[in-house]
Amino acid sequence: MDALTSGDGCLAAGPGLCATGPAARAAGMAARDSYGRLLALLSASASDIAAAEDALADAFERALRTWHAHGVPASPDAWLLTVARNRLRDHWKSAQAQRAAPLGDQQDSLIHTDDLDVDAIPDRRLELMLVCAHPAIERGAHTPLMLNTVLGFTAEQVARAFSMPASTMATRLVRAKKRIKAARIPFRVPDRGDLPARMTAVLEAVYGAYVIDWATTGPQARQLPSDALHLAEVLARCVPGDPEAHGLAALVQLSASRAPARLDADGHFVPLPDQDPSLWDSHLIDRAHEHLRAAHARRQLGRFQLEAAIQAVHCARRRAGPTDWPTLLTLHRTLHAIAPSLGSGVALAAVTAEVEGPAAGLATLDALLQDAGQHARRFQPARATRAHLLDRLGRTNEAIPAYDSAIDLTHDTAERQYLQHRRDSASLRSQHRRVP
Amino acid sequence: MRYVLLMHYREPAEGEISEGAIAEAIEAFGAYGRALEEAGVLLSADVLQPAAATTTVTRREGVLQVQDGPFAETKEALAGAFVLDVPDLDAAIGWAEKCPGAEWGVIEVRPTATAFVEGRWTR
After folding, report:
1. Which range among A67-76, A92-101, A231-240, A320-329 shows the weakest confidence by mean pLDDT?
2. Are A32 and A151 in contact (CB under 8 A)?
3. In which band, very low, low, confident or very high, does the pLDDT at A324 lie, cut at 50, 70 and 90?
4. What confidence score (pLDDT) does residue A214 get?
5. Is the Cα torsion angle B13, B17, B19, B25 positive or negative in sign?
6. Contact list, A134 vs chain B (CB under 8 Å)
7. Which of A56, A202, B84, B87 stands 20 to 30 A from B17 (CA)?
């Protein structure tokens, strides 16, 4: 029973699952795996996620009652699937009585629990993810739907990650599920021709689980429970032949690996070059490298693989000492060429400054900002990078207002304090210079 | 499952479209209709006359009102409807994509809630 989730985030059984630590985390992931797999299977036949959720919740409730009295069955997942399927069948029967709907392929024969091999239960989570990121579903709902259905996070938990009232998120999720059922969005992997575009939407939705891509302030990490990291892993497992799925998993894991070093003991922001590599999560870094190897074996470059490779070079400081800036420059150039964005351009300028000096970096940045036009003016990473570069060039009088504009655009408290600190020391230096 | 593909596009002024282009469109719609029939998914297909020919009828205010003109004046007008029976939304989107009207207008893909078939409303 330990490996089961009630779908309400904290797990139905075993209080240990709500604790922290690697063992609890592993158990939590296994539980989320079970939840997503069962829900995907139950939803698939009628494109009806809401009914499947109800049936699964009923099954969990019965499990709590009967397992307590009669012991945990040999295969808890199979037990739950059977009970939930029967529930769904009752639901359809009553629906049929009301309106003589054809049931079609929904009537699979009742599976006897003892005969059901849990390892033979097909994994249809990729189909579920494709439904969540279907073009007929509003974009803003893609990522919340995935977190809710594939990992079983509650609307409230998802709402918190999206800084949104829980009721608004709940409404959005309900609306999307109704739409999936009403329009009959199929739980099916599309044809080869349509697949690349649909996979891109899935990858972006998974990426959106970890990163908020503010149009004006650049990407920032999302506050999510640590087992949400598992979503990218699930996707990579569902499409082992897709190098970008591995690239994305590696990217997410490498970024997350540095989270423990991002704030110092006083809660102050520590920029990447000053972080203590011994604080990075080596387990996550190792796992990310496995994904990178799997991706590179396919010999097909993509945006997420490049971003992951960049993160891997940063993380290599853990073993190799100083950062390999020339390699980073090559990677950033390639990334900006195949997937140009304001973010990739600003990062390229910052790395150019490390290799060719701050003047070259500033020239790259200003050229980019000139081309990007008005909306780039409110892009926080661009403002922050420009302030740092001006500061390094000794152009303190220009750096101070540049820091100010970056500070205005920074959502993250720790980072804002860090910029404030840099601004103040620049200000001090300029005063010292004036007073001989 | 039944879906209606609703074609919407701006109605061209008289003489705006050349004879050749009209002939081409007729041919494209012919091929599209045949493809739908061959796939066994077509229930009905109608391309509408311009809104100038339309009449609206209502008893909403309690008395019969008959008016010339469409229900709502819009830039893009309802231009035709194809009723299909296909397994799911992806199949319906696939047919909408092939509709010649998608070249110059928008195709709305709407699942039907219920349909009158063989003497009763079903779904």
Report:
1. A92-101
2. yes
3. very high
4. 67
5. negative
6. 89
7. B84
- Alpha-carbon distance of A356 to A86, in angstroms, equals 67
CA distance A119 to chain B (A): 29
Q: Using CA atoms, how far apart are residues B32 and A88, in angstroms rounded to an integer?
A: 39
CB contact under 8 A, A186 and B1: no
Nearest-Cα distance to chain B for A238, in Å, is 21
H/E element, B120: strand B120-122
- Enter the pTM of the model: 0.84
Distance CA A346, CA A229 (A): 26
Q: In Å, what is the CA distance from B57 to each residue of A208, A290, B49, B53, B79?
A: 49, 68, 17, 14, 19
CA distance B92 to A183: 10
Q: Cα separations (Å) of A64 from A50, A219, A396?
A: 21, 42, 65
pLDDT of residue A13: 36
The 10 Å Cβ neighbour count of residue A194 is 15
The answer to whether B89 contacts A184, with C-beta atoms less than 8 Å apart, is yes
Is pLDDT at A161 greater than 80 in this prediction?
yes
* Long-range Cβ pairs for the range B22-29 (8 Å, 24+): B25/B100, B28/B100, B29/B100
Q: Domains in chain A, ordered, with CATH?
A: 15-94+126-184+194-200 (no CATH), 324-436 (1.25.40.10)
Burial A223-239 (b: 16+ CB within 10 A, else e): ebbebbbbbbbbbbebb
Nearest to A99 among B87, B91, B123 (CB): B123
The verdict on domain B2-47+75-122 having CATH code 3.30.70.1060 is: yes
| Cβ–Cβ < 8 Å for A39, A152 | yes
Full DSSP string of B9-28: EPPPPTTSS-HHHHHHHHHH
For β-strands B42-47 and B77-85, DSSP reports them as antiparallel
Give the CB-side neighbour count of residue A201, counting CA atoms within 13 A: 23
CB A186 to CB B88 under 8 A? yes
Q: Give the 3-state secondary structure of residue B111.
A: strand
